[in-house]
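Re: that backbone. Tokens:
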């Protein structure tokens, strides 16, 4: 046991001996270095170029054909600076970008792919070419599948744009992104933080979770809070407005009554031939059939004529005059009213007498009875 304890102590000493051996300052721990900064690509970093050819292609709608044909020289010149080959195929309606031997930046082909995607989504060429910069990113948000009803989709998309594109312009200023609403997609260009905010606003608007105006108010509050250095490291939830969704009454869906299940199919309705066979019309000659149809037509015309005549004559029917009342009944009613008035007068008199008795003051009688004898004495004297 003593030997084993000695071995454990030696191992512990060896471990503690080398503790902190590698705790030395590293060159990347320099506080003056900004690790989040994206340095511009230098062609000297990749002098050998690309080993394989990478290419991307995308289709574009027919209404963009004329514009792309005019703007393609500008796009081709911008891509040529980075050593990327571009091709516009008007027959198949597609754009293609691919790397060449002169391509040095390995990520530029991804930027070129985003460029042709934006061009196919109706983004102007001068704006789309900005995606080739390192600090610029893009996001294409698909909104067509978020709502089933076409009318609701159009209304909510209009909420996102706003009157005279005011809502869209406010979002662009607050997020620092370029936003274009086109058809079933929303194309956005900007920083990663701004693109995240744009995606949230667009999805909440189309799914009817929150109106873009409320998002704009929240973003404005966040911008004001960010400008205050005292609140930089604090939680902003207590300052931000909280919006509650109002419960709007929706139409109740009428539930259809379930019919009892029967394994047998419903009886087949009789055909036109079956009805003719049943009535015997099937065996009549063509002349008799025609005569029968003509007779039915005449009967319908007669019914219609009678109905129209009745409607016209209804305007000349005099209205019902009010019936005269029976004079004997009116005399009885007058007698009843007079008797009721007399009874009310009697009750009012009785009530007045009762009130006068209740309001009698006994002191007046006492005072009068005391003064009477003194007056008599004075007369005797």
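Recovered sequence:
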């Amino acid at each position: 046991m003593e030997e084993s304890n000695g071995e454990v102590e030696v191992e512990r000493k060896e471990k503690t001996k080398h503790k902190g051996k590698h705790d030395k300052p590293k060159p990347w721990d320099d506080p003056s270095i900004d690790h989040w900064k994206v340095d511009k690509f230098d062609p000297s970093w990749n002098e050998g170029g690309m080993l394989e050819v990478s290419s991307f292609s995308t289709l574009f709608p027919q209404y963009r054909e004329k514009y792309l044909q005019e703007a393609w020289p500008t796009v081709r010149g911008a891509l040529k600076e980075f050593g990327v080959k571009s091709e516009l195929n008007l027959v198949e309606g597609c754009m293609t970008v691919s790397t060449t031997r002169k391509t040095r930046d390995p990520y530029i082909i991804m930027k070129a792919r985003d460029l042709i995607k934006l061009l196919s989504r109706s983004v102007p060429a001068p704006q789309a070419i900005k995606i080739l910069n390192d600090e610029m990113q893009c996001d294409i948000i698909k909104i067509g599948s978020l709502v089933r009803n076409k009318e609701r989709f159009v209304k909510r998309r209009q909420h996102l744009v706003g009157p005279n594109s005011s809502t869209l312009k406010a979002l662009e200023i607050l997020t620092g992104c370029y936003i274009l609403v086109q058809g079933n997609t929303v194309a956005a260009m900007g920083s990663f933080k701004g693109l995240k905010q744009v995606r949230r606003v667009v999805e909440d608007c189309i799914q009817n979770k929150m109106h873009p105006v409320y998002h704009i108010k929240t973003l404005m509050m966040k911008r004001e809070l960010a400008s205050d250095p005292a609140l930089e490291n604090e939680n902003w939830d207590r300052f931000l407005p909280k919006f509650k969704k109002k419960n709007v009454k929706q139409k109740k869906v009428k539930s259809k009554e379930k019919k009892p299940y029967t394994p047998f199919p419903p009886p087949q309705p009789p055909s036109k031939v079956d009805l003719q066979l049943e009535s015997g019309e099937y065996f009549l000659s063509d002349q008799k059939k025609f005569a029968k149809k003509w007779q039915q037509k005449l009967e319908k015309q007669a019914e219609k004529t009678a109905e129209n005549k009745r409607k016209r004559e209804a305007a000349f029917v005099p209205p019902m005059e009010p019936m005269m009342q029976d004079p004997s009944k009116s005399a009885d009613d007058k007698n009843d009213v007079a008797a009721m008035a007399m009874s009310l007068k009697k009750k009012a008199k009785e009530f007045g007498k009762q009130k006068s008795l209740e309001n009698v003051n006994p002191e007046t009688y006492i005072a009068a009875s005391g003064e009477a004898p003194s007056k008599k004495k004075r007369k005797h004297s």
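Residues 367-377 have pLDDT under 50 and may be disordered. The first strand starts at residue 55 and ends at 59.
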